[in-house]
Write a structure and sequence with these properties.
The complex is a heterodimer of chains A (427) and B (466). Chain A contains 11 helices and 16 strands. Chain A has 427 residues and is of the alpha/beta class. Chain A is globular. In chain B, helix 6 crosses helix 15 and helix 10 runs antiparallel to helix 11. Chain A: This is Quinone oxidoreductase isoform X1.
Chain lengths: 427, 466
């Protein structure tokens, strides 16, 4: 039975435009409205980053499908323009639709290829600068698009024997052109962007895969070549040291994927996790082979660097840093050996690279931007998690209407592991 | 002058103002209560001197707020110490185990830092000491001294009533610790009990000391006229060499040795109202929200645990009064604990007229809309808070220097505020010079690992006796 989300939210319009609820036996009709939650990057005030409004149920594309969204990972979308903040002031559905259409027309995935606007070095940016919320530094909160749901309708021109059928449980690979919010119904123009989920994977777990796990996997894959080079240079007893920053969702995935990926060399790949919170300390300790160093933010930078190099028995060769601040990158570079490499999200790398390229050059260090991974990697992930070879991080499921509260908790790293928004109880 | 450092990797020159922006008049006015006049400092010195005497006196000790605990450390290093020693360093925000080899003019050290999770900091004392014993056992295993019985010096940087060189009762927890079952108990015995519960390692606890004693010993090993050990870090405390005959609570033969190190625990100064002449609304708010309200008032005006919060409270006040950031703050700024003390050092490390670090810090706080005038104001507020801290410490140090009547002496200093703040050393030197009696020469010497090396030296000196 579909469960209607409580309509009373602080962000609702004064008037509802939806038709009376139809009988569950009838398919939804074209002019029906559904609910959408949009999460922008957290600005100076957390409450300003979550928007909730109603949008038309989209028509099914002829070669694609309409997905009923069951679970969505709590990620934010990079804020594109100030005008999106004023969407709540839109007075009518028609202009709202216009706004949505214009926005969709821009294209670009939320992670990979947004239109760039360059900020000046002094910090006066065209885009409002995100403060260093704890959850952002920890990798608990990150930009992305993560949807898991059920195929509700197939397009008219989809072949009857297609690999994807109505009723299938799927995740959506975040291709260029994904919708910019989490609506109860979303469309995909081609079936190739859908990945079927095996029965052994729950939809909340599946929802974690398309950005968080995928980005972490691609980061580990990018690091792989460097690891091999270092192990080769250092001979049979040499060790390659990797530091993973944070114990939020991204870092927890990176830890698990790296442990799995390098398990055959595990005595020679030394993983250290920099924990930004005490709970993270305990969480990281579940892996006995992982070293943990605590990055208490109240310590001076030099103390943290000394502590980290002490814990790692010297400088590290590779840093995986999902934090998004100058401070985080600066600290990572200080812990990194000459010739070492830092991997970070491409979105963040582009912003920080100009400030740090000279500093990195002085020590022959490299800052590598990592894009979200490929759909093949996502398929591989689904398989590995489905087989139980990689265990997902802890997560908590919240009703979608609590998105604002969830964001606040994520900003403060108060949720262990990932937060999943649930629109519909289907498992 | 210490060299300023571009802490956050900012690019030089891009943010240098053509004209230097200085603090605005309204902010300067509002910060006046953070500036100590000479008259106020002189009065504070009189009160500190009085309270030190009270702490030393048998009849007045009980009521004294500056306790002047006797450490029973009566010898400074003289260079003859030899051997292999363990040290434990518990205090501030981390915990270390060290293995130290002492030779003639040579010193070899290996150490490891262990985290103390928040849950243990506020859990039971048994859990705390079991955690310490486990770290110690792991360390001894890693360094192949697992089966050795080594002398150990235990640096325990909390207010301690020492009843002997190896016996200390915890007076009260500070610095965020709040383990149950420890206050009033002998922490050496608690450590021994934890080690016995393990049953795998053996140690000989030769001394328990705090970080100020360790700092003094560490500097004295290098510089034999070192007589004062000062910590300005997470907490703030000082110890100094007193005449044994003045230590009226000394339990033993006061004529056996002329000197004895006294741990003042001066962080508690002001609990009786002696600081009312300088306390501001920010200090009161910090005290009210601390886990030890009404205590350690002097420490709360000086130490790194509170300095950042002092600045934050001032920023919040001035933002709400529309003197900063156009009256528009951020959730981040308004949340307690979000302005770290290191931010103060980073902001004051900017070259004059430049606001690179300041902008980075304000950006992290969701205040990217700050103007250049705002940056100049924020820097000024930081300077007022850190300068006040330096002057308060200097007043106390001057009291001790004047009391000891040594013609020339060194003060060994450690602690994150002293170590990392770009101007703290110079602010202190300048102020102490003003406040000490004519004819005295002094120097401030940065201790190298007083908590670790100092603990080993105390154990070594104790072994030298045996």
């Amino acid at each position: 039975m579909p469960v209607e989300i409580d309509a009373a939210t602080p962000y609702n319009f004064n008037k509802r435009y939806s038709e009376p609820a139809v009988s569950p036996r009838k398919p939804p009709i074209m002019n029906k409205l559904c609910r959408q939650v949009s999460i922008e990057s957290p600005g100076p005030t957390i409450k300003d980053c979550v928007f909730s409004f109603e949008v038309p149920v989209p028509d099914v594309p002829p070669n694609g499908a309409r997905i009923r969204v069951v679970c969505a990972g709590a990620c934010y979308r990079i804020r594109r323009s100030p005008s999106i903040s004023s969407v709540s002031s839109t007075g009518s559905v028609s202009s709202l639709s216009t706004e949505l259409s214009l926005d969709q027309g821009l294209g670009g995935s939320v992670v990979g290829s947004l239109p760039r606007s360059s900020g000046s070095f002094s910090g006066t940016c065209n885009m409002p600068q995100s403060p260093a919320h704890h959850g952002v530094r920890d990798g608990a909160l990150f930009p992305g698009y993560e949807v898991a749901g059920i195929v509700e309708s197939l397009g008219a021109e989809v072949e009857d024997n297609a690999a994807i059928q109505e009723g299938d449980r799927v995740v959506l690979y975040p291709y260029d052109g994904v919708p910019h919010g989490y609506a109860e119904f979303i469309i995909v123009h081609e079936l190739k962007y859908l990945v079927k989920i095996p029965d052994s994977v729950s939809l909340p777990v599946a929802a974690m895969l398309p950005t968080g796990a995928l980005l972490a996997m691609n980061t580990v894959f990018n690091a792989h070549q460097y690891v091999e080079d270092i192990l080769h240079q250092r001979g049979e007893n040499g060790v390659c040291k990797i530091l993973i920053v944070g114990t939020g969702g991204l870092a927890l995935w990176a830890m698990r994927i790296a442990s799995h990926h390098f398990k055959d060399t595990k005595m020679r790949v030394q993983l250290t996790v920099a924990s930004l919170k005490d709970e993270g300390f305990l969480m990281a300790k579940e892996f006995k082979t992982v070293n943990v160093v605590q990055w208490s933010e109240d310590l001076y930078e030099r103390q943290l660097i000394e502590r980290t190099t002490d814990a790692c028995n010297g400088e590290v060769d590779i840093v995986i840093d999902f934090g998004t601040t100058s401070r985080s990158l600066h600290r990572s570079l200080q812990c990194l050996s000459k010739g070492g490499v830092v991997f970070m999200c491409s979105e963040v790398a582009e912003k920080l690279m100009p400030k740090f390229s000279r500093l990195a050059d002085e020590r022959q260090q490299r800052i590598k931007a990592v894009d979200m991974g490929t759909i093949e990697q996502l398929q591989e992930l689904v398989k590995l998690v489905g087989n139980g070879e990689i265990e997902p991080p802890p997560h908590t499921v919240f009703p979608a209407e609590e998105a604002c509260k969830v964001m606040e908790k994520l900003c403060n790293s108060e949720i262990q592991g990932r937060a999943i928004l649930q629109f519909y109880d289907a498992d | 002058m210490r060299q300023t450092e571009q802490i956050l990797g900012g690019i030089e020159g891009l943010d240098t103002a053509e004209e230097q922006v200085t603090v605005s008049v309204p902010i300067r006015e509002r910060c006046k209560d953070l500036i100590l006049t000479d008259e106020v400092i002189a009065e504070l010195m009189r009160r500190i001197a009085r309270d030190v005497e009270k702490g030393l006196g048998k009849d007045t000790h009980k009521e004294a707020v500056i306790k002047c605990f006797i450490t029973y450390v009566q010898d400074l290093p003289n260079g003859t110490e030899r051997g292999e020693f363990l040290a434990l360093d518990l205090g501030g925000t981390n915990f270390r185990v060290l293995l130290i080899h002492l030779g003639q003019n040579h010193f070899d050290m290996q150490s490891k830092i262990y985290a103390i999770p928040q849950s243990i900091m506020i859990g039971s004392g048994e859990q705390l000491f079991d955690h310490i014993a486990e770290c110690l056992a792991n360390f001894m295993k890693e360094h192949d001294v697992y089966s050795h019985k080594l002398p150990l010096g235990f640096t325990f940087s909390f207010p301690l009533q020492q009843l002997g060189l190896t016996k200390g009762l915890l007076e009260t927890w500070t610095k965020g610790f709040k383990c149950s079952g420890v206050v009033g108990n002998d922490v050496v015995q608690l450590l021994k009990d934890a080690i016995k519960r393990r049953g795998d390692i053996q140690i000989q606890v030769c001394a328990i000391l705090n970080d100020t004693t360790g700092t003094l010993m560490s500097c004295a090993w290098k510089n034999h006229n070192c007589r004062i050990g000062l910590i300005v870090g997470t907490g703030c405390n000082v110890c100094y060499v007193e005449k044994t005959e003045n230590c009226e609570l000394f339990d033993g033969d006061v004529n056996a040795k002329p000197d004895c190190i006294v741990n003042t625990e001066w962080g508690a100064f002001g609990s009786d109202g002696s600081l009312d002449i300088v306390i501001t609304e920010y200090d009161r708010e910090i005290d009210e929200n601390s886990i030890n309200a009404g205590k350690q008032l002097f420490e709360k005006m000086i130490s790194g645990m509170y300095m950042g919060e002092l600045v934050r409270l001032a920023l919040v006040r001035f933002t709400k009064d529309k003197l900063l950031f156009g009256g528009q703050g951020s959730d981040f700024l308004f949340k307690r604990g979000n302005f770290f003390t290191k931010f103060v050092s980073e902001i004051e490390s900017d070259k004059r007229g430049s606001f690179i670090n300041c902008r980075e810090v304000l950006g992290e706080l969701g205040l990217a809309h700050a103007t250049e005038q705002d940056c100049a104001n924020v820097r000024y507020i930081c300077e007022c808070v850190s300068r006040r801290a330096a002057h308060l410490v200097s007043a106390g140090i001057a009291v001790l220097i004047n009391k000891m009547k040594e013609p020339s002496l060194t003060v060994g200093v450690d602690g994150s505020v002293y170590r990392f703040h770009p101007h703290f050393h110079d602010l202190m030197v300048e102020k102490i010079k003003q406040l000490i009696l004519p004819g005295i020469k002094f120097d401030l010497m940065l201790s190298e690992d007083g908590s670790g090396r100092g603990a080993a030296l105390v154990a070594a000196v104790a072994c030298r006796e045996n």
